[in-house]
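[step 3/7] fold_predict: job queued, chain A
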Amino acid sequence: MIILTITIAVLLVGILSTFLIASGIFLTPKYLEPWKKGYAQQFDDPRLRLVSHGLLAASGHNMQPWIIRLDKVNPNVFYLYADSKRLVQQVDPFARQTLVSQGTFLEYVKVAGDEQGYETSLDLFPDGEYDEQKLKESMDTKAVAKITIMKVERKSSELYPYLFLPDTNRSVYEKTPLSNQQIKQLIEMNDEADVKIKIFQDDYNKEKLGVFAIEGAKIESKIHRINEESGKIFRANEYQKNKYRYGFSVEGQGISGMKKHIMQGLLTLIPSINNEKASADLFVKSTQVGVDHTPAYAMIMTKDNSRSSQVKAGMIYSRLVLTAHSMGFVMQPPSQVLEEYPEMSEQYLKIHKEYAIDGETIQMFVRLGKPTNGSPKSMRQDVMDFMQK
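[step 4/7] structure written:
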């Protein structure tokens, strides 16, 4: 009996070790290095220090679709381009989310500039907006923004410490609603005249918006080409995360610690457990759990859907995230219902008809509340990966 028990124990240890090795548990997670607060200080060029903060911003599907070109003549100027090779065309066919992601980056740069004593001036689309008929070519040749920095007296930014927190938290939120003062603070941090923030926490709108979130998840989960696209940017283990440093991973479901490595080992050794149906079912279930534990929702709307408006919406989104973090709140965008592919058109039109009554475009739709659990940090590329080759 003792021998059998020892044999079983040895077998279990062996199986666990196999999973952990397959997960890459002994690898240094280089994909997390940009989150270190001292990471930016390795660069003498202040532009690179600011870019090092910008890359911590949220981006659609964690694609980090940013290219940076440093001006070779003026050491105070750099340019941001959208990376046409990082489009997710099935879920974002018109690259709207990609342009919103340019704004999230720019706002992080501005906040870092304030903290480090640099005033940042932005000139959006300095060479004109894109030719929509030649979108990828336009992205490659036309900058989203020209950023000019000027050394000024350093002023500590209240939002700066929150750059280093994960932008998205998919956990269960506390039931406690926001106070009127908290809602006022979140709405009034917006200084863009063409961008509007709305917050909903009454039962009627919470129920209705929860249905939109769930319906969006159900629709998207059943579309094979979208599941295929997501599968291509899923990183199953530490080896893949260190190699690519962008896209999805199990941390996106809030999994961390030893559980993360066991799950990664399973996915690596038995990839069939992450089949399309299992993944879809988990996605819908997690969306339902999130909706059932959401005290408030927020929307960011723009008067039109121009590329400049998309970028401005992204900037306001970053500011909303950072301001919310400073108040102890977190967010998660159940954004499927805002995506513009054919199967989602009915829900897209419905949510706009009900909530964008003046013809605005809803750029962001998020859960908002106080978290019950922390959220793991997601992959980030090295700052030099964004430099124009």
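[step 5/7] annotate
Residues 210 and 327 are 24 Å apart (CA to CA).
Strands lie at 66-70, 77-82, 118-124, 145-151, 195-200, 296-302, 330-332, 361-369.
exit 0
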